[in-house]
Amino acid sequence: MKKNFRGMTLAALLLSASASAQADNNQYVPANDSPQAFVGDVAPDAPVHVGSHYRSPVAPISNYAPVTVGDLQPAGFIEGGLRGSRGGCDSCDSPGCDGIGCDSMCGGKSGGLGSLLNLCGKDGWMRAEGMLMFHAERQAPPLVTSAAPGVFPVLPAATIEFGDDLDGGLSGGVRTDIGRYLTDSFGVGGRFLWVSENGDDYSASGDQTDPNARSLGRPYYFVPRFNPGTAQEDSVIISQQNLFSGNVQAEYATDFFMADGYARMTFCHNKASRLEFIAGYTYAELEDMISITSFRQDEDTGRNPNLAATEFSSLYDTENRFNGGQLGFESTVSRGRWTARALTKVHLGNMEQTVRKIGTTTDYLLNNVVSTQNSSILINDEQGTETQDVFTFIPEMDFTIGYRFRDHVSFTVGYTFLYFDNVAMAGDQIDRNRDTGNIGANVTPVSYDIVEGSHWVQGISLGASVDY
Predict the structure, then answer these.
(1) Beta strand pairing status for 124-135 and 453-467?
(2) Residues 232 and 274 in one domain
């Protein structure tokens, strides 16, 4: 009698389990020769089990087709059912969750500690990366030349010491990105990218009493005002034996940062991939500067007894401020603990270009009289500050691979490329065509045209990503 009772009990449990499994999968089971009916269809007079979450009556067992043990299927989780009752856990390898189900970290009537700390859902992100960035070589004309002792430092025979291709090497930087999904398919975020100053400096000196000291010069292209057909290379001597002792200091630097706010909308996604459309606002600044100062002491007092020393100073400073929108796509693919992200976007908008040219020539006389003129070797009447607005675009590409070593934390490594179209760079603003008579003279400043160029930045990123 006990065996029969146990057998009937087991059969009832198997029938109930199978019906629940089939109902969750929206499959139907034919009942004898009756029309096809979905499991879960109810009979109006069936009893309600005590403690049931559903108040609708359950169909009599006689209405279901016979089910064997082999027909059983595991019941799936219902969105908002088990997950909601267990504190929001969507992954059983979350901190405090085991491999079978959410434990007390995320479970319990109150949602558990994981729910309190928001560790059981993943609808937000925080990313922090260190950047190792390279700038494109900045172009500038030859600004400092040298030659053998006693030789006039004029091109093309002289050696270019500063100018031409200016390569600042590697620069560090930081990029952060934080945001949150407001719905399953819509989120907002903000990002900040800063790259430290990229540049270099140069200094040299020459003493005419040293027979091994190389000659130093500031080259320019001499274009006579009244006979331009005789134009040729020339140079202002900074140091040369029996003429001048002097020194020169020069530097260049480029700074860049970008900040943007954006919204993202999901086009399609599944468990392993996601494609999103991104749109928003971008602000960026790209600054570039070249500064050069040279000082020379006249050693031939018999040739010019009144002029003791001369200092030439030139500054080329450019600022590019971008305000505009951004459009792009980001795709994410996951395989196990690995995740690959590809971001392609273009920033479109207005670039405000500002260029400053400042030149001075200071003469120090033997009687302590100082005379200052508002021009220099390569800066004459075209000086002052000029500003213009142009439409431009900034394409951007980011590729990142992340390894998830904790449920919410990943290490990332990536590559970034940014291209700037229609920007004012300092080297492009230098005009080396000069008339010797205009060097070091007082002039009336006149307006000038801003020369536009392009620039790019690229490098790798190393960082961490936290989903919360």
Answers:
(1) antiparallel
(2) yes
